[in-house]
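Possible regression after last week's pipeline update?

I re-ran a chain I had predicted before the update to compare outputs. Posting the input and the new output here so someone can diff against the archived version. Not blocking, just want to make sure nothing changed silently.
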Amino acid sequence: MKKPRIAILSTNSADCQCITEAALSLGFRVTVTSEVSELLSVLEKETPLLLFCDSVPANGGGTLRTIANAWDRSASIVLVVPPDIKPGHLKALKPWVHDYLTTPVLREAAAVRMRHALQAKTLEQAAGKAEKTLRGWVAGWESAISSYDPATGDRAVMVRDLARMILRQDAGDLDRPACLMLARANGMNGLDCEVFTASQAKEANGPVRITLPEMALFLRMKAESRLFHANYFDRGGTFRDFQSLFPPELLRLSGEVHNLAGLAVDGGYVVALNFGRPACAEDVLRLKGHTLPRILLETTSRSLHNLSDAFLVTIRALAIAADSQGDNGAHIGRMNRYAETLAQGMSMPDRFVRDLSYSAQLHDVGKMFMPSGLLEKPFRLTSDEYDIIRQHPALGAGVLEGSGVLRVARTIALTHHECWDGSGYPAGLAGNAIPIEGAISKVADVYDALRTPRAYRPAFSHDDARRIILDGDGDAGGTQPNHFNPEVLRVFRNNADRFDEICDRAGLSAPVQVQ
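New output (post-update):
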């Protein structure tokens, strides 16, 4: 992969040398020039990660305006200025400048700017991949539903469509695998497997069925958060050692295995083999997005005859799949009961209470598309990481878009982080502009978050959680009563003991009292 480029527009040779040394030490490519025309020719071919520009060629902002127009308005420009620069000069340059350094430039100071720019670029790319994954997920749902007949539940059609969607269509499609295996435990310490190759999927042929032992690689997949990817060269392994992980019966169908991505789900495994480049975590997310809708629909068809019950089970399965807490659905179950309690306390219509009681569990469905490292981070998030997490309400609403029966769930997903005083996200709604289902779910989610231990703090007791919601936590940036709908807050005050009962039945570990 080509290394990012750092551009330097300066007439100061000492600063140029210092910035160049910093860039080379971090593995970046460097372009150094004192001529604006030369820099513009570079911009025509490639967008640098960062531009360092001193105040001489900046020309009172005229040069920066030209560069920004040739580049784009979001370009990252670091202006190198003398220590005695006048404030009025800085103000004139402000529209195009993202950061400042003073001359003479320190090498470490320049390196810090570069590392920050690279981190921001990485986060931007992660958000782009999350959006791409979301689109694949939605496409998977649309395809699954279009081929699903609830009367017959034709699994063969769903599986064949799944293989056609996942597997590569031509040899140049490096981002897709060449082989797909669906495996289910057969109750005799083995796996009944359906194996598709790219040529079979392209010709709409059925799978080859084989029986394999539940080998160590699959058990490792179960152990590692149920999501797994591997390449033959990982952890210093050899290609020959990697082949020894797979039974001969599978290798005869797939050929030599270079990499894989897979997940353990619904008592079995879904494994994609031989991507055209090294497998990565995003491949597992895409595989999950394509696979899960069909598995959920298949489970519904196999297990339930009543379509209404099937819908509720599917919604719960989707909520569990998206839940980042890893507690087998306990958190989302409590969310449903808390929301139901509040809606009943507000004398809402029975239909609304029922819809809310199964919709609240989908409040965080958008977190399915968040990088797992952020959701599982043992420390508080940085501001950039928090900006990524703040995308999950809109992503979740996108998943639930277009369904009348999921209207309440979509509203909850989109608005449960909005605050009564307008300080919430994603839209900064305030007061009665926040739908009541979102306002109810906010109180439920905050209470359960306080009662649940985190990596960076223990769980709060019921009394402390109640106090924080009703009176605030004393932290200017923390939980405050004016974050909540006053009517919902009143009902919470009157029904707080019921919240404690729901939490106790869930069996949460004993909290630490806050003094």
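Follow-up from reviewer: compared with the archived run. The chain has three domains: 5-120, 147-290, 304-505. Marking as no regression found.
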